[in-house]
Amino acid sequence: MDFSNYRRHDAMGLAGLVAAGDVTPAELLQAALDRLAVVQPLLRPLTLIETDFAEATLGAGLPDGPFKGVPFLLKDLFAFLPGTRLTNGSRLMERMECTFETTLIARFRRAGLVVFGKTASPEFGINVTTESVLHGPVRNPWDPSRSAGGSSGGAAVAVASGILPAAHASDGGGSIRIPASACGLVGLKPSRSRNPVGPAVGEAWNGLATGHVISRSVRDTAAFLDVTAGPEPGDPYACPPIQGTFLEAADRDPQPLRIALVTEAPGDYPVDPACIAATEAVALKLQRLGHHVTPARFAIDGAAVAELMATIVAVNAANDLLTWQQVLGRRADATTVETCTRLLAERGRAIPATDYAKAVSGLHQTARRFARLFATADLVLSPTLAAPPPPLGVLDQNMADLDRFLELNAALIPFTPLYNITGCPAISLPLEHAPDGLPLGVMLGGPLGREDLLLEVAGQLERAHPWFDRVPPEPA
Questions:
Q1: By CB atoms within 10 Å of each CB, which of 126, 188, 195, 331 scores lowest?
Q2: In this structure, are residues 229 and 195 in contact, taking their beta carbons and an 8 Å threshold?
């Protein structure tokens, strides 16, 4: 299967070719590997290439799922699958073999997907770019001097560069939507507990983090959610169900909606004029489609929220490092862990239990205030990021100044963490570009459990303003 034909299809399209007998899963895997050989030396999206695992999967026979035979990549961050390795972007874990399977990964594989590798993440998913000491920088296919975003930067580059049409990603503060914005893709963060996070844990980062995919089409994003969504035994909370399927939602036009337009970042962080212009352009598109768009603002102290999140992430970083040192029998020091990771973990260990409990309570209070916005609006429209993708090397997780590192992160993503804090779903859509050609994602957010509403509007926008054939230049 030649690349031009391969790239014309999204994941559902490739699965349709397999079902019709027009192509075999082995031929699709070879097409993905051929494209990987072109992209990997230049953009570095993968950390682990698991060709033997993929061939064994094909040899054992694939389940008759909706994505039977489609090549697939897992994010190299807490994506456990026996027969594969995991590094979490850290030298501390570079030789670790997986011993159990993450529930979400099992559901991907039951859908017939063929896993052939893992994509780069910053160390322990802490950074909003993907530039680990262990694996080096992942380069944006639209401009290789720029960041691809993080923490699912490798996944986004693999999809945008044409290695495959969709890839596993995860999001604890924007990590699906950030690289989707940076690389011109669709990135949905589902509602809290929509997708499973077990079996090892009941929640990730105190409920901030969840997993899904980055894709090129709204229908893929919806169809993947149909095969992964749903509770598993022992979940600490549940997500409201929807009527019908997510794919059906993506195919239908919504009734006219009330959409709140927010371009002012919480916390008074500056927002690049290009990001504001992109969001306002999408607001006009929505108005032409019959929706009612009204300017609004978040009544939230963004700086305080960033501090609360920093406390949660620091405590979890401390726990993660302690756990992996014990499991691996290795020491977390300057030779195995990046500077800001170690400093963040040290800060987390020093945080009193009362301050940690206060931070959790503060996030819950923020969620209560945020949810009131949906009493007067059905959806919220905002920039995904506060600026275009920065040059590589700016967001350095190995810098010596932890406070500077955290501030640089917070300034780029003042909008995305609100949906992790609240548990509400949000989707970044590749509708606009900056004057220099870099993609500028625009984000729609909705009430808890209303991915169906987001997908209705996303599908409507995609049909009115198609983006599938807008791809980055060939890597050179």
A1: 331
A2: yes
